[in-house]
Amino acid sequence: MTLFDDLGEDVSLRRAPRRVVSLVPCLTEAVEATVPGAIVGATDYCTHPSDLDVARVGGSKYPKLDRVLELEPDLVLANSEENRPEDVERLRANGFPVWVMEAPATVPHALASLRRILTQALDAPEPDWLVEAEELWRETPPVHARAVVPVWRKPWVILGRDTFGGDVLRRLGVSIVYSSYEERYPRPSLDELRSWFADGAADLLVLPDEPYLFTDDDGPEAFPGVRYVLVSGRYLTWYGPSLVAGRRSLAELVGRLA
C-alpha cells in the first residue's frame, strides 16, 4: 500500500511495519507505547521508555546511516525539523520507506499527525493515551503570565512563533513574548531578553532541562530578580504519551505561579 507522510511524500509499505527505526525521541516513545517491540533501532537520545533495549544509530541530526541500513527496517520515522533532508533521501534511495512528520506548531497538530503514523502507517488501534491527551489539552485558559522561554544559551535561543512548546504553554495560560516574531527560534542578545522584564512585557522565565540543561545555577543568574520556573523539557517539547503526565505536572507547576 502507498501512504503519504506529512510532507506529501510517498511511503510504500508491503505490510504493517514491524521493524521500525526511529530518528526522533518522542516518536520512539509513542510507537513503543502503542506497538511494543516494533522499534528495532533508535537514536542515542531516545531515552523513553527507559528500558528500551534496541540498536542505537547515533544522533538525530547526524545518524549513522550505515547502521540504519544494516537493521533493514520496514519503516524509518523522521521529523522535518530534527532530521536532515539529505539523510532522508539517502535512506529512500536505498529502498527504505521513510515517514517524515512535519514539526508540529500546536498540540492538536502533533496528535493528529501521531494518529496517522500509528493507525495508518503502523496499522495499530487508536491508543488510549492519545485520546486522553486530546481531551486533556483541548482547552485554552486565560493568560496569567507572559514568558521568555530559552531552549539554549551560548548563544541564547528562544521559543518563538508556531512552536509546539509555545502552544503547550499557551494551553496552560502562559503566553510567550516572541510568538509574533518571524523566526521560530530567535537568537536575541541577552540585553534584549532582559529588556522584556525591565519593561514589564514579560514576568516569567521558563527554563527547560533539554535540549540545554538549565538549572537553578545555570540560567537564572543571567536574569537577576526575575521570577523563573524549571520545567521538564520532555513534558514541554515531546509529543506522545508524555503529554498525559506532562499536562498534570506542568499545570501544577505553572499554576503555583498564577
UniProtKB/TrEMBL annotation:
Keyword presence, Ligase: no
A Pfam family the protein falls into: Peripla_BP_2
Keyword Signal among record annotations: yes
Domain Fe/B12 periplasmic-binding: 20-196
SUPFAM superfamilies the record matches: Helical backbone' metal receptor (SSF53807)
Alphabetic keyword roster: Signal
Protein name, as recorded: ABC transporter substrate-binding protein
